[in-house]
Amino acid sequence: PRRKKYPCGDFSRYFSPPNRKRKVMGMKEKTGLAKVRARSTAIAATVFLLPTILLIIVYMIYPIIDTFVISMYKWNGISSDRVFIGFTNWQNLLVDGEFWTSFGHNVIVMVFSILLQIPIGLLLATFLDALGKKANAFKIVWFFPYLMSSVAIAFLFTYALATNGGIFSELASLIAGKNVTVDLLGRNPQALYTVIGVMAWQFTPFYMVYFIAGYSNIDTSIYEAAIIDGANRRQYLFKIAIPLLMPIFKTACTMSLIGSLKYFDLIWNLTGGGPSGGTELMATYMYKLSFQQFNMGYGSCVAAGMFILITAIALLFQKVFVVKEDY
Asked: Is the pTM above the cut of 0.85?
């Protein structure tokens, strides 16, 4: 008989196994099911994320953009007429000595906040983690300052650090045996470092709880293995536990850095930026320009400058401070 000729190319369609079509149909069904699942997941994600995205746009993105727009105008913040002056406010900002002085104060606050709040918070967390449930009373007492509002803390320390009748004045008088006045908020540079101490008193408990959460995430089998290998508590702490906490340490430093650069309420109610601008920060300077001097255009320029500086410093810190995430 004559041999059947097939066109050149793929011969699989002439000699395919009987179940090939069923496999192809099964693959199509699986692909279709995957597409349906992906579509339903995308719809659910959109439904849940849309309100959050709208809130972020309305309350975060739009105010930032509008701040940069207003910085181009001369405006008192009340009248309807605004005068467009271009980059004049930005040119003035670059040579504004008060702004750069307040920025320097922010940097000092930032450095000392990281050096005080993070180590003390880690020390307290280590103490509480070592004692376990026996230290529940300490957790409550030490966390109490963070539960108070910044305004209440400011008024509390206004009286506690008063020149006449304050804690330090009374202690100094008791030790000296005569009337002694200690003025911590009325002189420079003592006022700035006193305010830094009050900030540390308020915010250290937050980092304490943050590091306690970090300790709780360390598997107990790691500690047991270290003990079996002959490590004592100190060696476990410095060689194992703290290195495992480095990602949390980096996040805590970043939060402290950003928070230090935008402090306002505690400073404003405690010193108002005084004495003689000794505790003036960028936020208090911006507030005075915008709502006391009614120079909303230049105040918005200062706020935009704050945004640029804080973002740049935070990104630089993230770039420089690199820690190992996985062990």
From this structure: no
